[in-house]
Design a protein that fits this description.
297 residues, alpha+beta, Alpha-Beta Plaits, 11 helices, flat
Length: 297
């Protein structure tokens, strides 16, 4: 293609990207490093109605950002325009978008250089492999073997990599043969532009369980505080009424104030006091009667 045509094509692409940045509130950048092609197609299909995904050359994206004067803050994305990227244009909240991408991740077989997302344990059992070079390959990654019924067996459950370890090429090949999956594949948001803000990957990463626990704790603390200071709200009014009723009831009993609620307990309390007093009367009377020796004296 003649250089002039190439130039015109790039200019046209820059204009299209600028229009996308104008049409959508959020511009996200996700890494393509750990994404398999079929998985990327599935992402595009699942999110087609909410997210427009485009693979754009980083240089063209940078030029589009520089020429887009309506949102000067987009220039802060420039430092993230490295590596293999896919650009996401959407009106979704960026945190919701990041969660959707996380949910789309899958556990798959490792390639050389991948990071294990869990402890990799090769279970004991039949590998289904005939005796041959595979024995030395298995032994080389620390797997004890034996031959039985014409197949190579692994004799004991063996930990071959811990969570966070880099998977070397030799081990990746063995794990693939055995069908053991230990790496996570999918799109990960590197950064997002939203309402004049640049939100980084760390900020986009949300632990929903921890957020739920934090909200639950905050609600419990606020509820307890509102009860202690008797601050009425729609959520605590029943509890406040119950507390007030209980305290008023105890006060009425201690002050012997008869009401339709306290009268039965006041009568029981009076009866118990009477019984206690009457049981002590013989002792008091006995002490009060003068003894014969005292009379003689």
């Amino acid at each position: 293609m003649p250089s002039q045509q190439v130039l015109q094509k790039k200019i046209s692409e820059v204009k299209k990207v600028a229009q996308l940045m104008k049409n959508y509130k959020v511009v996200g950048i996700a890494s393509l490093q750990k994404v398999r092609a079929p998985q990327l197609q599935q992402f595009k299909k699942n999110l087609a109605e909410q997210v427009l995904m485009r693979v754009i050359q980083n240089t063209l994206m940078k030029r589009a950002i520089e020429n887009f004067k309506e949102r000067p803050e987009l220039k802060m994305l420039a430092e993230h325009l490295e590596g293999a990227n896919i650009y996401l244009f959407t009106n979704l909240n960026p945190f919701k978008l990041a969660l959707l991408l996380e949910k789309g991740k899958v556990i798959t077989t490792a390639k050389s250089g991948d990071i294990a997302v869990l402890d990799v344990i090769v279970p004991a059992g039949n590998t289904g492999q005939p005796p041959g070079p595979v024995i030395s390959q298995l032994n080389a990654v620390g797997l004890p073997t034996r031959i039985e019924s014409g197949s190579v067996w692994i004799t004991t459950d063996t930990l071959v990599a811990e969570k966070g370890d880099v998977i070397p090429e030799r081990l990746a090949s063995i794990l693939s043969k055995l069908g053991i999956k230990c790496v996570e594949a999918g799109l990960s948001m590197k950064v997002a532009y939203y309402e004049n803000l640049i939100i980084t990957e760390e900020q986009l990463r949300i632990d929903l369980d921890e957020v739920e626990r934090s909200i639950g704790t905050a609600h419990a603390d606020a509820f307890g505080l509102s009860l202690s200071v008797a601050y009425p709200t729609m959520e605590n009014i029943i509890s406040l009424t119950q507390i007030a009723h209980q305290e008023a009831y105890i006060l009425a009993l201690s002050a012997a104030v008869p009401t339709k609620d306290t009268i039965e307990d006041l009568v029981r309390k009076a009866h118990a006091a009477m019984v206690s007093l009457s049981s002590r009367l013989p002792i008091v009377e006995e002490k009060a009667v003068p003894s014969k020796e005292a009379e003689k004296g």
